[in-house]
Amino acid sequence: MNLRVVSRYVGLLLFTVAVLMMAPVGLAAYDGDPHTIMAYSVSTFACIALALVLRRVGQLDEDHEIHRKDALGVVAFTWLALGLLGGLPFILERSIPNVPSAIFEAVSGFTTTGATVVSNVDALSRATNLWRCLMHWIGGMGIVVLFVAVFPQLGVGAKHLFKSEVPGPTTEGLRPKIKQTATALWWIYGSLTALCTALLVVAGMPLFDAVCHAMSTLGTGGFSSKGASVGHFQSPTIDWIINAFMLIAGLNFGLYYGLLRRKWGTFWRNYELRFYLTVNLIVIGIVAVSIFKQHGNWADTVRHATFQTLAVTTTTGFMTEDFDAYPDIARFALFCCMFMGACAGSTAGGLKASRVFVLGKVVLRELSVVVRPHQVSAIRVGRGTVSQDIARGIATFFAAYFFLFAIASFVLVACGLELMSAMSAAIACLSSVGPGLDKVGPTMNFGFIPGVGKAVLCVCMIAGRLEIFALFAIFSAGTWRR
Amino acid sequence: MRVLILGAGEVGRHLARSLSSDANVVLLDADPHALAVAEEELDVLVMEGNATHRDALEAAEVREADLVISVAGEDSVNVAACVLAKNLGARRAVARVDDPGFYTGPLGVERDVAGIDACVCASRLVGVDLLRLVNRVEVGWTSTFVGGAVHVGVVELGEDSPVAGGPVGSLGSEAASITRAVLRGDSIRLPSEVASLEAGDRVILGGPPVGVASVARSMRASGSNRVVIVGGGDVGLQLARALSALTREVSIVEESRERCEALASVLAKTTILHGNGTNLSFLREEQVGRSETAIAVTGSDEVNLMSSLLSNELGVEHTFALVHRPGYSSVYAHLGIDGTTSAHEVLSSTLQWLLPGRTVVSSATLPDSDWSILELRVPHTLPRQLRVRDLSLGASTRILGVLPHSDPTIAPEANPILQGGEHLLVACPIRDRRSAERGVTRMETKSG
Fold it and tell me: What proportion of chain B, given as a percentage, has pLDDT over 90?
């Protein structure tokens, strides 16, 4: 890893963050709140100052290509820096005066987790609510992807950057050049956000809340400008609009590009999409049957079951009612869904539906090999097959995911959390869902967790967002060898 | 612009790299390992599939390709893939066909064969490029245009030049047709504007490679005449033919006895030597050191490098070598070898020339002057009928020749009617480049 290159590009990325941070500055100025203006302006300047210092350190004699190691470093350090800088305005504004809590809130924002430490969201300033949702929106499609889309002439380095932030079986290859792919993704993402905002406004949500919720929905984040989340509005129309857009955000964005080019077939034939929808239907069914008694009519039952299920499977983490109060069978189904998350190439977190599907196929194949040791069979998914190498990679990813889950749960239990709260907090952060169960349930918050626990959860959130290996690569000796 | 490259080998990847800044490149290959290498080092879209399978071509969206380049390992695959690609709606297709027997001409580029827009022969193109490098010894400066079919050279006339003092008209018909302009002081004059050639004039020649070389020779008092070629493959054979037409004493060193006999039966004026180009005692015995130029063109980089170094050691003044692995050229230059060429480089520069959509297709700057030579492509559809001299290309720009699309030789300056798709060879001051380019793009005329 060439630290100069890393420093240079982290600096450039922080400039992008500074530009985006001007949005809450503008809103605070409009609202005429001097304390908030000060908090966000100082944070913006801090961001610019740090960016300038990094650029200065990273001044290069000549154009230097970004190699894979450098790209991993740029992405990992950028995401670590995002947490610190994103939390700064909360501390300055004194909306979240505790430093670990403020950083937790920012990391939760950028990684689209939506786990909050704020007990009274309704008391936050409008600028702070905008910033929380804007973090989701930027982090959803990815700050590095945005950077690749707008920054010219990165060549093959752009590809390494893109892949470090968007790893896994995904969307590269929509267009011949990675810059075009990144631009196309941001266009699709931006247009869907605008559409969602417009529909929410038509459905009666105030403009500011509509913008916040649209950004939070498309980023599969979960921060809401209301304490009672989407439940605040008590409107079936709004619930269904957000249901639709959570689902849209949880599908592979590459498919929308295919739809724009009128390739209907590739959309419906996509095995991951079919598998993901099937899982959702089953879970919605389980939840609906188990909560029917609470509502008494099917319309409300189905609406709430669908909302809570999609909020978990797309890793958004909104709520219209407290799913922690559901019967245990529904709670457990939702807890399991937290591991899977949504589709690869979406803004959601988790293991990803395609990986779960492939691993299921691998298990079935291993079973048949036990019975007939001489049989040779391929791992079939949809119309294609998955190679042994890819299957092995997926199994490794699973193992890493569960190790991380176990370690994080252990630390939280050691911090004094009760077992179910600890485990659900760990997976809710690792898969970027947000709310967990019990003490960290949808109506609760993460504020009470001690600093060590928050730090571990922050690592989980970033690791989950970058699909583990990109973050931990910077701790490997090979990365640092010149 | 979208370019589909079939074959992700060394050549395919080199092409993808050189084209990826101008075009959206898709790389198709059946070998996942080759694709993995390409994926790692190039910002292009890679797809797995067989180039002769229609579903693979369709998946790669061949109908949207502005150019399909097939550079797989086999000639027949390349031809078949290009024919299929054209059938499926690709706008242009170029196939790499290395069998020299496929071609009717000597150039290594043939247009419109079996519906394929161009077939290119790497060994031929390499031979032509080596000829240009060898000519540099004599001409001083050369550059290629029209994808290698036209060489432009500048000959500085010395006091002892046989043509100094005589009028341009006395040069003989071949020399007169190749003499494009005279650079005297800081100004360029067309041959018709020059009464007689003087010592110190720099004559700009432009035409087929062999013609330029032989005219250049006739304009200079020449020195030694011996050339030794190591390697008797197609490149060696072709070079020997071209160089012996320039009345040089050419010998070929070839290791295979059978190949030697085959060469002896087709090359009457060339000395064929059976031996190893890296065997020092053999080279001494054959007095290779007395040659002026040595060119190593075997199929092995190691042999080419070693025999060039040995020739240098024995006293050969100029050594040139064919390089197979891209990226080795700089090592050769470091070791004191005068010039190298490689199939990757010549193929990519030829293909750059074939790319649609650019006005300036090739350009070169004349040494020690502020003039450059441009090859400009006339748009395919012209607004009205125009003669070449009606074009407004900037005050000092001179048109050196018109290059008709079908026949890549320079037409004389008869002020013909401009045809769509023709190429113009012009000399213009470096600062006027933009106005020359604009003149052709917008078809501006002198009358307004």
Answer: 17
